[in-house]
Amino acid sequence: MLTPSRPVIKIGISACLLGSPVRFNGGHKESRLCSETLARHFEFVPICPEVAIGLGTPREPIRLVGEPTNPRAVGTVHPELDVSDALTAYGERIAAELDDLSGYILMQKSPSCGMERVKVYQANGHPVDGGGSGLFARALMQAWPDLPVEEDGRLNDPVLRENFLSRVFAHAEWQRLRDTGLTRKALVDFHSRYKYQLMATDPLQYKALGRMVATIGKMPLDEFAPTYFRQLMQALKKTASRGNHSNVLQHLSGYLKRDIGSEDKQELQHLITQYREGVVPLVVPLTLLKHHFRRHPDRYVANQAYLQPHPENLSLRNAI
Ligand code: SF4
Questions:
Q1: What percentage of the chain exceeds 70 in pLDDT?
Q2: Is residue 3 part of a domain?
Q3: 288 inside domain
Q4: 256 plus 220 within the same structural domain
Q5: pTM of the model
Q6: What distance in angstroms lies between residue 246's CA and the mean position of ligand 1's atoms?
Q7: Are residues 202 and 306 in the same domain?
Q8: Which of 48, 60, 151 to mutate to test ligand 1, by most ligand atoms within 8 A of the CB atom?
Q9: Is the beta carbon of 48 within 6 A of some atom in ligand 1?
Q10: What distance, in Å, lies between the first and last C-alpha atoms of the chain?
Q11: Is residue 205 within 8 Å of residue 231, measured between CB atoms?
Q12: Does residue 2 lie in a domain region?
C-alpha cells in the first residue's frame, strides 16, 4: 500500500523483480526491497520487454552477440532468432509513452533489461571484457537521458540506493513543476531548493549551475530549462562523499551560529566530525541539526531538499 501524504511517484521496473513469472524459464527474480519496501512509497509500472515483443514464457533464452557498443540480441539455440530491432523499438516506445515515470529499476545482466556490463559474446564463444547494455534498457536510456535509472543489484549498496531515490524525488518534483507551467521564478526557486543537495554531490557543478541560473533571462525558458535540468541530473548522479556531506553540514550549522550556545555548537561539531570519520551514519548529525532548526526555524534552510530529499521512513540515511 502506498504511503498517503506525498503525490504518487511512478517508477518503471523489470516485471520479474516484482515476482511476475516472466523469465525465460517461467521463473521470477523478486526483489523484496522493491516488492515490499519501495512498493509502499512508489507506484511501480512493471514491464517485461521480452514478453511485450511476443516471446512466450517459457521461451528460448536470448543473449547479446557482436560489437559491444552495438550488439544484437539473438536466440542461444537458434541464432537466426534476432529480436534486436523489436527490443530497441519497444524501449523507444515506452520512453515516448510513459513520460510520467520518475525513475526506472532494471534487472541486471539481462540482454534486454541490463543497464551495464551485460555479457556480449564474440564469435569465439567468449564474452568480451566490460560487456554492454541490454537493448531495451539502452533504447530507454538513450531516449530519456535525464531519467534516473538503476539496477536492482546495485540498489543493495546503501550509497547508490540513497543517491538513486534522491534523484527520483528530484525528477518527480521537476515533472510536477513542468506540468503546472514552468516559469523563470519557479525554476530559480527549484534551483535554490537543490543547492545543498548539489553541493554534496558535485561541488563544481554547484558553482557552474549557480552561474548558469544567474543568466536565466538571456535565453528563452523552453531552451534554458531542459539544458539546466540535464546538467542538474548529471550532477546529482554523482555519489556524495563523507567529506562533501560534512562540508554541507558545516554550511548548514552556520545558520545556527547566533541561535545556539557553545555547548550545543560543540556537540554538533563533534557529531559532524564523527560522521566525517565514519563513526556514525549521516542521520546522526542531521537529526541534531533538524532538532535545532525546529527550535530556531530558518525559511531558506527549511526549504532545502538536502534536509529531507526522500521520506524519513525510508531510512535511507541510516546506512550511509
Ligand atoms: Fe523480462 Fe527483463 Fe525480467 Fe528478462 S529481465 S524477464 S526481459 S523483465
A1: 98
A2: no
A3: yes
A4: yes
A5: 0.95
A6: 40
A7: yes
A8: 48
A9: yes
A10: 27
A11: yes
A12: no
